[in-house]
Sequence to fold (273 residues):
Amino acid sequence: MSKRLLWIGMILLASGCVKQVDWPVKKFSGNLLVVDGILTNEVKQQSVILTLPVSQLNENPGAATGATVVVSNEDSTYQLTEQPANSGIYVTSKTFTAYPDKNYNLLIYYQGQTFTAKARMEPGAYFQQLSYKKNEGNDLYHVDYVASAFTTGEPAMWELLLDWSSVPGYDTLDPSQTRARMLFYTLRTLDVSEIFAPAVEQVSFPAGTIIEERRYSLTAAHAEYIRTLLLETTWQGGLFSSSSSNVATNLSAGATGFFGVCAVTSLSITVTP
Fold:
């Protein structure tokens, strides 16, 4: 009985400490460059996205245009061009595949400054497909399990691309209403902020939905970047929030974000009743 009363007291104490506050966001006045670049072992035009910091919550970042972007390894050098113009998206002129036994270098020249990063690829791995369950109260479904959030093995990022635009009854809707992208992470760390993170919106979809499940291999440095990013975003605001801090990066001074090289393994699933 005493243990039960202790738990009730802790819950009441936690709920009693919640209050609404105004949190002014300081406007960033520097020239920080935000880099989002992942090379993969897929045969495709590889890309790097360059943006600028925002000063308001949920503000769309501005594109860092007019940069010179080069990716290289021991054997080859690839010049990236901005496509479309003024988008901040830089792509290679031809397709190429990244390999796990190579060292990749990123060179960015932007507004008189030079930024660099280095990365390698961890090998990919096969995996068991995700599971999904039917919602309570309707005929839609939701993702029930993808992978354990904690692992003693290799860390990974999981990308789910859901498409139900061809399902009867949904085929006349706007494409933005019939597609979804979900991300999950398997990391070697387990944080209190992760365990008690705020609830996230559940994505519901009908039978007939096609799900492409993709696993990205992560190096230890890439996993640490994702962990610190989650601590500042998705895991922030729960019962045990953490103090704000800088997100880890492998970019040189004056830039943030991450340049990674990932092996991708994938499979396709069709949701059946």
